[in-house]
Amino acid sequence: GASVLLLRACLVLLASPIYLLSFLGIWEPFCRKVFFPFILDKIGVTHEKKSKKHKQELFRNLPDFRGPSGALRILEIGTGSGSNFQFYPAGCKVTCSDINPNFQEGLKKNMKKNQHVQYEEFLVAAGEDLGQVPSGSVDVVVCTLVLCSVSSVSGTLREALRVLRPGGAFYFLEHVAAEHSSWRYFWQQVYYPTWKLVFAGCCLTRELWKNLEEAKFSELKIQHISIAMPWMPIEPHIVGYGVK
Length: 244
Hints:
- The protein is an alpha/beta fold.
- The model has no long low-confidence stretch (mean pLDDT 94).
- The chain has a single domain, classed as Vaccinia Virus protein VP39 (Rossmann fold).
- A 7-stranded mixed β-sheet has the order 3-2-1-4-5-7-6, sandwiched between helices.
- It contains 7 helices and 7 strands, in the order αααββαββαβααββ.
């Protein structure tokens, strides 16, 4: 514990300009509008290369969840720049949502590259508050690298279940806490406060599989995987889907 606190203090000193900007109320709006979309775009390129095979396997059975009409209606929570569009089946109807509306440039680029998808609308909304989406109105909810930063994981999962039709599915791929006895977990604890500040609320030590297990899915498939990112404490991931 003492080692963690000491190393955390060292990181605070190194990141003291950011902490000062945060104290003055300048960092958060700058982070959400400029820094976070920029850095996520750069990190996202590497993460997409590392996670591509996992996403291909994850989304392979999306067509199985088409509704009675034959259409596949997808709601993506935390769409960001739209890196998942390439994995969606042709003709599916996608509603995009994100609490941060500042990903528009990357989002438009990915929409243009993936014209096999029908884009319905973009909602500025938090995962915990999807009131603009009617209950039981979508076949699939997709959430990748989002549950780490929502204000309430359980609230987001409740909303996902609400908007899904019976028999619909919630798809996820998220980074999670490492084994408590590992060095990875030690460094996750060290980085935690500064990482959360710098990366717009991203939490390194959430055990998200527990939240998913506690949610009221009739069927849940979870796989623990590793996606190595150079010099970043987010290697442990979970991937899978739950059925309403």
